[in-house]
Amino acid sequence: MKKVAFLFPGQGSQSVGMGQDFYNSFDSVKKLYHQANEVLGYKLTDLMLDGPSDELTKTENAQPALLLNSAAIFDILKEEGIKPAMVAGHSLGEYSALYAAGALSFEDAIQLVHKRGKYMEKAVPTGQGTMAAVLGVDADVIEEVTQDVSNQGETVNVANYNCPGQIVISGTVAGVEQASEILKERGAKRVLPLNVSGPFHSDLMKPASEDFKNELGHVKINDADIPVYANVTAEAVQHSNEIEKLLVEQLYSPVQFTQTIENILKENVDAFVEIGNGKVLSGLVKKVHRRAKIFTINEVEALESFKSWLKEEE
Q: To pair with 231 at 20 to 30 A between CA atoms, which of 160, 212, 263, 302?
């Protein structure tokens, strides 16, 4: 049996029409979509399939939408007996990974990310915080600049170590703008403002983490059946207590995606499989290791292609 790692995308990968192909092709997907609507108490699936885009992009909608889409595709694979050796997710995607690993039920996972989104919106009202991708400058320079700007009174932190040469910063609008200008002077090839609704994975999210910690206390977290590579540490975790602690820290800590992929590569996987909308993570994996075998399952045809590869002889 080939050894594969499943990867689950995070916020920013959503788009109107996401999951339509699977929704039209599998009764199990329709059932899960209807279940999500019942659990949440509103028609999330209408937003996913028909928009409008600005409503789908709101954190409290984008997060459950992405989890639902990934969970539906994962369930199809599971029904066909296809299991990963380990899983990881990017930011929000960690919840899809925990669902896939049996650590969270679907009902708990989708309610958690919906509430997580609300707490994140509440912590920093839209327009007060932002994020930017910094290209072509070393991590130590970015860490130094963000620390200097923060020391002067405007919060800005490293949010995502996405891949070599691409690091995201997050903080107040003024903090991100100041750091961006300094980083251009320090040699950054480009600094790209991101279209996000808040300063995710920054110190500004600490109030949200307190609210969210209380929420997690009401949820049953199981030990994971397979290793889940945590965003905060880039290490494999399976124990429920550690999972809970890291989910709280994840809200205000940087996503260690580069190190996560490097650690999974040490386990000699045959392929990475991105499960969900878009193909952002597939691109990042290629930049960490350009020879890595990658599948992106975001439509039925791609699912069939992956299944055919699995059946091939080693």
A: 302
Type and span of the H or E element at 134: strand 129-135
Q: Report whether the peptide linkage leading into residue 52 is cis, meaning its omega lies within 30 degrees of zero.
A: yes
- Specify whether the CB–CB gap between 111 and 63 falls below 8 A: no
Task: Point out the residues that are catalytic.
Answer: 91, 201
Q: Any residues with CB less than 8 A from the CB of 12 and at least 6 apart, and which?
A: 194, 195, 196, 280
Closest CA to 22 of 222, 284, 304, 300: 300
CATH classification for the domain delimited by 4-123+204-311, as one of 2.60.420.10, 3.90.220.20, 3.40.190.10, 3.40.366.10: 3.40.366.10
- CATH match of 129-196 with 3.30.70.250: yes
Read off the pLDDT of residues 226-257 as tens digits, 9 standing for 90 and up.
999 999 999 999 999 999 999 999 999 999 99
**Rounded to whole angstroms, how far apart are CA atoms 257 and 24?**
33
